[in-house]
Amino acid sequence: MSLGLAARLARREMRGGLRGFRLLLACLALGVAAIAAVGSVRSAIEAGLAREGAALLGGDAELDFTYRFATPEERAWMEDRATAVSEIVEFRSMAVVGDDRALTQIKGVDSAYPLIGEIVLDPTIPLDTALATDNGIPGAVMERALSDRLGIAPGDTFQLGTKTFRLTALILREPDSAASGFALGPRTLLLRDALDGSGLLAPGTLFNSKYRLDLPEGTDLAALETQAEAAFQNAGMRWTDARNGAPGVAQFVNRLSAFLILVGLSGLAVGGVGVSAAVRAYLHGKTEVIATLRALGADRATIFQTYFIQIGTLSLLGITIGLALGAFLPLLLAPIIEARLPVPASFAIYPAPLAEAAIYGTLTALAFTLWPLARSEDVRAATLFRDAWAGARHLPAARYLVVIALLAAALIAIAGWFNGSWWLTLWTLGGIAGALLILALAAVLVRLLASRAAHITRGYPRLRWALAAISGSGEGAAAVVLSLGLGLSVLAAVGQIDGNLRQAISGNLPEIAPSYFFVDIQKDQMPGYTERLETDPAVSRIDSAPMLRGVITQINGQPAAEVAGDHWVLRGDRGLTYAATPDENTVITAGEWWPEDYSGPPLISFAAEEAEEMGLALGDTLTVNILGRDITGTITSFREVDFSTAGIGFILAMNPAALAGAPHTFISTVYAEEAAEAAILRDLAGQYPNITAVRVRDAIDRVSSVLSSLAAATSYGALATLITGFIVLIGAAAAGAEARTFEAAVLKTLGAPRRQIALSFVLRAGLLGLFAGTVALFAGAMGGWAVSHYIMETDFTLIWSSAVLIVLGGVAATILAGLGFALRSLNARPAQVLRSRE
């Protein structure tokens, strides 16, 4: 028979409306909508960053130098190419009011700031007025979080280093804040010249100078970047321009959205379970129609094509609904989303994320509908009149299995290509596949366990009825365990990862982490600094080391990025130190340390783990740009560096003679009792105002707040998966309503009270939910362990609070999904039900 005939038959079948396909439409629409919405928000942020790139950056281009200002020659190069140049210096320090001290991120600006954009202050006054000097006291503005912490208001004074400043206004909006990245303290903004005499910019101080360029209209940014890299090749300069004004934000958004889309794919996988169940239930109800067509001469291909066209058309309808929701929901919620975003977003309908979501939805629909469709074509007409599926084999023909496998491979390939991270894609989708396999095996196991348990619970009729129903309803049990289990597995994994990460960074803080990091300690201040701490009985340990920062520019004479790729050590500047001898905690894993009195060519000791990742070997040479000067050294040893202790850890250490004459300061960590921390800070900050103290517990809190946002975003994605699972549960309950009605009718006829029958239904749903939640917890804990062990490299312990919520959630979801249909089954009259079965 022809494909045209199959199309006509499919069209006639669809005249019956959407009955039987509501579950299919809901599952596909919700899964596609979640992915399309995440992609649309990502595109909106990317468009906003591109549109406002110059304003976010504070100029058309920026040249960034570490621990030095531009030379007159470098400044002249910028001025020759720009219509205006603005110099900014950024560093951390302590703002002091009386005995109160708070860490702040200082930004020293010039009169040209901001070149592009506008800073908004409270009260509303011009920035030059706010920063002007009045009665010999320069003005400054700061974020409200800092003024509240210090208990000051506009008009009050505070100290930075050895100099007094007057707070004149609070910062409501800083145009280039996104370009500054993550900061450990709130912002204080003042004039660069006002820092003279404060003691905060002494030689060796840890600071960054940034030069913003306002370029002539039509300037080729790519060509200018090439010129700048050639002109500043050995100057340790980093270039950013308006094409990506906030690269850190853009990278973060891309990675988070990629992960959320992969989480959304788990929702589509759950929806696929529902789609498969809906197709199977629909075909089961078409027994007489299919049998009639087969009796009239329709071959297997015609039957398959008829229902493939029908189900395919309805699948496209579900995908279209999902695309519409994913496109328009971000537009409707744009004001709310924009209010919570730290960067601008340009909300519109973007074709690319919609196309991506449509591809995912189409591949998922094909993969999950082929299985039941393929099984149906092997059932003979005579068998269809008796039992539509009893004679069908459980697995479809081999050609269909090959097609399904190819669809799965295509889905993985497309996800990896769209996300740009094969590693993340394979791990995430592999985890989803593993969870589905575990849950599928669990669905078989629960039926076997229920069948065995039903024989030993004769004294408990309600429990026995529930167990018998579970053991006899293979499709119902599978739908509950698979749909609910996968959604709960994602939530369980997120909860365990978040809990273990928090525990890793804060749970063991008193035992392993220092109380304070002190930076910018001048060499002549080290004796007095050390004496104050060594005489304090509350201080258990002090670690100090000279501190410089440099950029690794070459490996074995070749550009570093060409040798080691995009390794994190090569992204920007890194801390480095020097030492004549290794300290007592240093563990050399390969090679040897240099002699104590060594004064020859520069030698390097490198972190072992990072060296292995970068492909470094003993004898390799590294060129490091420090304060604009290139120093090339040879690697003579590798050593262990453990950053998890929150103590001092340097990727790179050199012999002292290699860095002789380079201005630098010292960094120090102090391990002390918590009760003594305030006194230590007060004494050291009072004696050495230039020293900056970073309280480790405060830094942990700021990192934890970021982690909370990430966990919340991921949980929202997992919640969409759970909602899809709940819809599948409702579909499974609806599909089993006829069986529950017949069961209730039989039990009523045998004299069972309604209350006992209802309780058996609740027990059945609760047991399935309990089992699904327990298996999901197991799968989620395995995923959490894998991420904690292999990615975070932290210890893993089961977070019981999250675990209990997952199990209870499984029980509650199954009971709620089945209650409405159970009530209808209980209200049916036995006589009518039993007569209809004759």
Shape label: elongated
Distance between the termini: 37 Å
Q: Determine the fraction of residues in helical runs and give it as a percent range.
A: 55-70%
Oligomer: single chain
Largest sheet: 6 strands, mixed, barrel
CA-atom Rg in angstroms: 33 Å
In total, the number of strands is 22
In terms of DSSP E residues, the strand content is: 15-25%
Helical stretch count?
27
Number of domains: 4
Mean pLDDT: 79
Structural class: alpha+beta
Output the strand order for the largest sheet: 2-3-9-6-8-7
The parts where pLDDT drops under 50 for at least 5 residues are none
Protein name: ABC transporter permease
InterPro entries: ABC3_permease_C (IPR003838), Membrane_comp_ABC_pdt (IPR038766)
Main location: membrane
Pfam families: FtsX
Question: What would your notes on this structure say?
Answer:
It is a single chain. The chain is α+β, with helices and mostly antiparallel strands. It has 4 domains: 225 residues, no CATH class; 112 residues, no CATH class; 229 residues, no CATH class; 134 residues, no CATH class. The chain contains 27 helices and 22 strands. The strands form 2 sheets. It has a 6-stranded mixed β-barrel. Strands 13-15-20-17-19-18 form a 6-stranded mixed barrel. Helix 10 runs antiparallel to helix 12 and helix 12 packs antiparallel against helix 14.
Short description:
With 838 residues, the chain is α+β, with helices and mostly antiparallel strands.
